[in-house]
Amino acid sequence: MSYLTKKEFESSIDELYPRLHRAMTAYLYGTSLEPDDILQETFLKAIRNLHTFQGGASLYTWMYSIARNICIDQFRKLKHEKKRDFASVEELPITAEEKNNTEEINLLRKAIMSLPDDLRELVIMKAIDEMGYRQISDITGVNEQTLKSRMLKARKLLSIELKKMGVRS
């Protein structure tokens, strides 16, 4: 068991925050919840519970789990899970590489947001946040083989949705 000190945690914030912010921006898209608010609560909760971090998973995975659980609690409280508004996909941040493909990126984002909640979350974790199946399994509690099967289903649904939007592969 290796516990994390407050100083070690604080030194990792600059590395963790941008990645978590990007992930939470995608995760919360279409809700009235703000990634900054969720992350503030996440970091406060993490500092209060540093003594529980044992190093079995990466610090990022542990922090993502905390943020995800806070989001789920907020969704339950506000009943936003089924009331997301995906009308303006263009509001999501675009990276420098995406600027040349804005239309395609917006169609892909819209297609991702049309997926059922569990598949959308998986696609966001795997494709957008570039997590491995092991990391996703640690966060969600779903075994890796099931995740791979769900990802295959998500890809098929994305392909169908993109074809409906007129995108040809």
Topology:
Layout: H1 6-28, H2 35-48, H3 59-78, H4 102-113, H5 117-128, H6 133-140, H7 144-164
Helix pairs in contact: 1-2, 1-3, 2-3, 3-6, 5-7
What oligomeric state do these chains adopt? single chain
CATH level-3 fold name of the largest domain: Rna Polymerase Sigma Factor, Chain: A
CATH class of the largest domain: Mainly Alpha
Question: Helical region count?
Answer: 7
**What would you give as the CATH superfamily of the largest domain?**
RNA polymerase sigma factor, region 2, helix turn helix motif
Cα-based radius of gyration, to the nearest Å: 17 Å
Element pattern in H and E: HHHHHHH
Q: What characteristic shape results from the CA principal axes?
A: globular
Give a written overview of the molecule:
- Helix 5 crosses helix 7.
- The chain is mainly α and 169 residues long.
- It is 65% helix and 0% strand.
- About 4% of the residues have low confidence.
- It starts with 5 loop residues before the first helix and ends in a 5-residue tail after the last helix.
- The chain has two domains: 85 residues, Rna Polymerase Sigma Factor, Chain: A (Orthogonal Bundle), CATH 1.10.1740.10; 70 residues, Arc Repressor Mutant, subunit A (Orthogonal Bundle).
- The relative contact order is 0.12.
Which short descriptors sum up this protein?
169 residues, Rna Polymerase Sigma Factor, Chain: A, Arc Repressor Mutant, subunit A, 2 domains, 65% helix
